[in-house]
Amino acid sequence: MKKTTQALITSTALTTALLASASQAVTLNIPCTTGTGFVSCEKTAQEWAETRGHSINIVTVPFSSSDKLALYQQILASKSADLDVFDVDVVWPGILGAHLADLGPYTQGAENEHFESVIANNHYNGKLVAMPQYTDAPVLYYRKDLLDKYNQPVPKTWEQMTATAALIQKAEREDGNDRMWGFVFQAKAYEGLTCDALEWIDSFGGGSIIDGDGQITVNNPKSAAALDLAGSWVGNITPQGVLNYDEEGARRVFQGGDSVFMRNWPYAWALGNGEGSAVKDKIGITPLPMGPDGKHSATLGGWQMAVSKYSENVEVAADYVLYVTGKDAQRNGAIIDGRLPTIAALYEDPDVLAANPHFANMREVLENSVARPSSITGEKYNQVSNEFWNAAHRVLSGKSDGADSLSQLESKLERIRGRRW
């Protein structure tokens, strides 16, 4: 009799717990970016939903970081719950932080597994408003087979890269490959061009647009020389169409076998070596070239996950964020998509290293990274970046030279700053 009663009590308690769990099941609106990462994003979200007993609604968002930021600002400004979570660029915590939930009460110390500098970047007014999903820094991709064919070394400087690209492009075209270009990169007027152009001017010793004290430093001869060199590529070693290339535009040309060099982020490695790629097993990577003073520079990138403070399910959304930024998810992202983890222990994981032998090179790249001036400019960063990429685009499109474009840029940045950033 006692056993029957106990079994009944246990069964009733379990049923009650299951009913309670079912009654608490919610549907989260999750963003997934168009492009190569969409399938992985959707798969991870579905796994979380099945594990937790919740449901998800996938919202497709733009690949372009500029377009994505504009969409997110519109959603958050209206205090809408159209998205419960957001994927956040490394420069956005200062821009969007006022609208993001404090994740501190939910992490249970998970942030301590990640690189300290990345976690520090994800704070806004002392609150942890985002968790890192992966970090990023761009590299120079090159065709190993073509450099070997023409007995050319891996270039160390931008000038060497320019000369090698021109030499191989000319030789390949004379050999009948009239689609070959020397170098492709991101020259569309958007945030991606801010990253590219910042690398050029910083590697030339021109600084990082705005220094740590908030002084506008970009208008100088070294920065102008860097932009003028980049402008000389367009129409010569780089197709005119580069003016509309984002990361995917550049990747398609390089992966199709039609470029000697490419500046891009690490995600392109796995795709370039995938089945069906024209350059499978023909790719090498190296740090981005140095400027005249012998300095490598790579713009620090990466994406975070954040929770909208206007979500009706902040706690559940926080659980989702911790799931997709956790060790297992980052490990899978590294192995499958070639993403750079922010959890230091994963750089010693044998499966991660087996899938990404080039991660050994990425340490040097990350050590020579340069941050965009988002922390110092805060909510004005988007305006600053917009003016900077337009200044670079004017030079690339032949509408201005470096000196004139940077002089205009300085005046516009002074107006944006006003009395203070």
Q: Which secondary structure elements does this structure contain, and how are they paired or packed?
A:
Blueprint: H1 2-23, E1 27-33, H2 38-52, E2 55-61, H3 65-77, E3 85-89, H4 93-96, H5 104-107, H6 116-121, E4 123-124, E5 127-128, E6 131-136, E7 139-143, H7 144-149, H8 158-174, E8 181-184, H9 191-203, H10 221-233, H11 247-255, E9 259-264, H12 267-272, E10 283-286, E11 298-299, E12 301-307, H13 314-324, H14 327-337, H15 350-355, H16 359-367, E13 369-370, H17 374-377, H18 381-396, H19 402-417
Parallel strand pairs: 1-2, 8-9, 11-13
Antiparallel strand pairs: 3-12, 4-5, 6-12, 7-9, 7-10
Plain-language structure description:
This protein has 19 helices and 13 strands. It is α/β, with parallel strands linked by helices and 421 residues long. Strands 8-9-7-10 form a four-stranded mixed β-sheet, with helices on both faces. Strands 3-12-6 form a three-stranded antiparallel β-sheet. Helix 9 crosses helix 18. The longest helix has 22 residues. The termini are far apart.
Keywords:
421 residues; alpha/beta; D-Maltodextrin-Binding Protein, domain 2; 2 domains; four-stranded mixed sheet; 13 strands; 48% helix; disordered N terminus
In short:
The chain has 421 residues and is an alpha/beta fold. The protein has helices spanning 2-23, 38-52, 65-77, 93-96, 104-107, 116-121, 144-149, 158-174, 191-203, 221-233, 247-255, 267-272, 314-324, 327-337, 350-355, 359-367, 374-377, 381-396, 402-417, and strands spanning 27-33, 55-61, 85-89, 123-124, 127-128, 131-136, 139-143, 181-184, 259-264, 283-286, 298-299, 301-307, 369-370.
